[in-house]
Amino acid sequence: MMNTTMAATDTPTALHARSPAKINLALQILGKREDGFHEIRSIASGVDLCDRLTFRRTDSGPVTLRCNARDLPTDDNNLIIRAANLLRERTGTAWSASIELEKNIPVAAGMGGGSGNAAITLSALNRIWQTHCDDGELTDMGAEIGSDVPLFFHLPMAEVSGRGEIVSPITIRWSGWVLLVLAGCPVSTPEVYGNVKPGDRSRRGDDVFSELKMATSARDVSERCFNDLEPATFRVAPRVASMCEAIRSAGAPHVRVTGAGQTAFVLFDDFGEADNLRRRLITSGIGSEACVVRMQQASEKMK
User: Fold this and answer.
1) Are 125 and 54 in contact (CB under 8 A)?
2) Is the model's pTM score more than 0.85?
3) Which residue among 22, 103, 213, 301 is the active-site one?
4) Residue closest to 72 by CA, chosen among 110, 108, 116, 124
5) Helix, strand or coil for residue 257?
6) Domain end call among 106, 141, 169
7) Is the Cβ–Cβ distance between 108 and 261 less than 8 Å?
8) Rounded Cα distance, 157 and 193, in Å
9) What is the pLDDT of residues 179-210, one digit of tens each?
10) Is residue 59 annotated as a catalytic residue, yes or no?
């Protein structure tokens, strides 16, 4: 099921939804596939940084999207519109929708904002259109839209494989606070994957994934976090590499980049410690913005 909070408005023809960001605690590149994608293995967690969406059913016409972010496309270049149109095509429904997006997750940041939006769109419209697709059908449609989309049907915590379309919900023992720091330079995921070199692969074993799941402190989890896409990300966006080095120098040795984006994260057991580092980074001009969020909890999974 989708890992967002969704509640009906006064009428069953409208829904409000929260679409969370994700971070990759571990991301391993296993090799390049014949279809051109990279085979990966990853552990991803939802975090409490969310876009907010409102869906209203309409009688006919094209699906429309309004967004508070002026530079974000609202046509079929947006994954929300692509998801809505795919659901209409597959189910043959005559219903349409007007959608409003309050964008809080930065674009091209490695946190899956657009993919999460697509997943929640499939789930929400399936409800208000009463198209009766099951979770498996929605997940399959999501995989057609983008490799990261299936993940968002299985958070708050999941293990990912294949090109990203094979997802299994998991649990890990630790839960705490996440400091997110943005470099201020959107990073292209295809460009990062295009710059992956054989030497970037860490060749970590199954034991690291098992140990990460069983770790009980921010330090223990952090010591096991890794991202094989970091070297390629640093080649594509040296500003991200410089930011990570500055964060380490500020006292956070276990800083990691999430996905193939501009966002670095540091894990904490204590909110005060996380916020203290956030304030020091902002004062020192390290990163373009920073915030402290908590890991999503299993109780936040949509019923």
Assistant:
1) no
2) yes
3) 22
4) 108
5) strand
6) 169
7) yes
8) 24
9) 999 999 999 999 999 999 999 988 887 789 99
10) no
Asked if 75 is an active-site residue, the reply is no
Q: In angstroms, rounded to a whole number, what is the distance separating the alpha carbons of residues 1 and 174?
A: 22
* Candidate list 48, 51, 148, 228, residue with the active-site label: 148
The residues facing 162 across adjacent strands are: 40
Residue 303 has pLDDT above 60, yes or no: no
Rounded to the nearest 5°, which phi and psi values hold at 114?
-65, -40
Residue 18 sits in a domain whose CATH number is: 3.30.230.10
CATH code where residue 187 lies: 3.30.70.890
Contacts of 77 (CB under 8 A, 6+ apart): none
Joined tokens for residue 7: 């509640």
Question: Which candidate, 299, 256, 293, 255, places its Cα nearest to that of 275?
Answer: 293
Are 129 and 57 within 8 A, CB to CB?
yes
Q: Do residues 266 and 179 touch, judged by C-beta distance below 8 A?
A: yes
> 10 Å Cβ neighbour count for 193?
19
Please answer whether residues 99 and 64 qualify as being in contact, where contact means their C-beta atoms are separated by less than 8 angstroms.
yes
Residue 18: helix, strand or coil by DSSP?
strand
pLDDT of 57 higher than 60: yes
Considering its fold, how many domains does the chain have in total? Answer: 2
> Do 28 and 101 lie in a common domain?
yes
